[in-house]
Specification:
The protein is built from 14 helices and two strands. It is mostly helical and about 325 residues long. It has one domain. The radius of gyration is 20 Å and the shape is globular.
Length: about 325
């Protein structure tokens, strides 16, 4: 634990433990609806942290990250539906599948010098290929969708991820805490410093002898594997998968909004961004429903307004600004 907290300001450590304690006891006071909102917040915090490895740490913009969510979701769900393989075992297949896809995208891009906006377009193209492809794969339901069996459970079955919202809440909480700690260790590792060097100036990093191809490939594959875990959770929480729903570019945009709003390249940014976006969005939805106002696309408009405000007022994100105000930054 001392190594995990090494270099973390004392106030920040206190904040982490206070937040974790509040999240641990939340199911004691929250109903199923509020638990579902918290599950969504933690889900977006998790996938935002996974995406943050590529863009925030290594400087590689991916706008098709939903492909890894979809591959993880469809792989684990198909194994469970057709062979009765538990999702935790399905992870052992889903993660390599997503990492292999990430490696293919990374190899095509980095070996042939595809960078910047062209790399982002390449990731979108692969996500669209996956969407169209899964639309025509009958084994996974095609465009009609893949449905997992749902029943009223009198007890929680953690092994098969069948149960009540409280069980799913603690699962995604554990995953979010694990990915936060993993990203903290990665950022302070030798590879993490190489990623930051590549992000700031790839040519200079290459001139210093850093194997930029190798470390960018590592960023892509690690991020893809971590995102696939979220896909497994997504499949068993929602119990239905449609290619248009899972692989659509709007899903990729949802993934990247939390770290952009919270602060790209920071550890707390994706978490804070997920709380702000999802919390306020769901609150606005409930308010409009209570007032009897039905506004199609209100959530998307809200996301756009938040992004515009943050980009104009806080270009580094909410967390760096908040950390300075609260004295949470590490002193030189």
């Amino acid at each position: 634990m001392s190594r995990l907290l090494e270099g973390v300001p004392k106030r920040a450590g206190v904040l982490v433990f206070a937040l974790l304690l509040a999240l641990l006891v939340a199911p004691l006071f929250a109903n199923d609806y509020l638990l579902t909102i918290l599950i969504l917040i933690l889900y977006f915090a998790y996938v935002g942290q996974a995406w943050n490895i590529m863009m925030g740490f290594a400087g590689q913009l991916s706008l098709g990250h939903a492909i890894y969510v979809g591959l993880g979701a469809y792989t684990s769900a198909a194994l469970y539906l057709h062979f009765g393989i538990a999702p935790w075992i399905g992870l052992l297949v889903a993660i390599p599948v997503a990492m292999a896809c990430g490696a293919i995208i990374g190899f095509l891009a980095f070996r042939f010098g595809v960078a910047g906006v062209y790399f982002a377009i390449l990731t979108i193209a692969f996500a669209e290929f996956a969407r169209i492809g899964f639309d025509h794969i009958g084994y996974t339901g095609g465009s009609a969708g893949l449905f997992l069996p749902v029943a009223q459970y009198t007890h929680n079955d953690l092994w098969n991820l069948r149960g009540r919202p409280a069980m799913f809440y603690y699962v995604i909480l554990a995953l979010t805490v694990a990915v936060f700690l993993l990203c903290h260790l990665l950022l302070r590792s030798r590879m993490g410093y190489f990623w930051l060097a590549i992000r700031e100036d790839e040519e200079a990093a290459r001139a210093l002898g850093i194997d930029t191809f190798r470390y960018k490939m590592a960023a892509v594959t690690i991020s893809a594997g971590m995102t696939a875990v979220a896909g497994v959770f997504f499949a068993f929480f929602y119990n239905n998968l449609f290619p248009e729903q899972v692989f659509h570019i709007s899903r990729s945009i949802e993934i990247i909004l939390a770290p952009i709003i919270g602060g790209i390249g920071t550890l707390f940014g994706p978490v804070l961004g997920a709380f702000v976006l999802t919390g306020l969005s769901e609150g606005m939805t409930e308010l409009l429903h209570a007032l009897g106002i039905d506004v199609p696309g209100a959530k998307q408009v809200f996301y756009g307004i938040c992004l515009l405000v943050v980009v104009m007022a806080l270009p580094d994100g909410i967390w760096p600004w908040l950390a300075r105000r609260l004295g949470l930054e590490r002193r030189a």
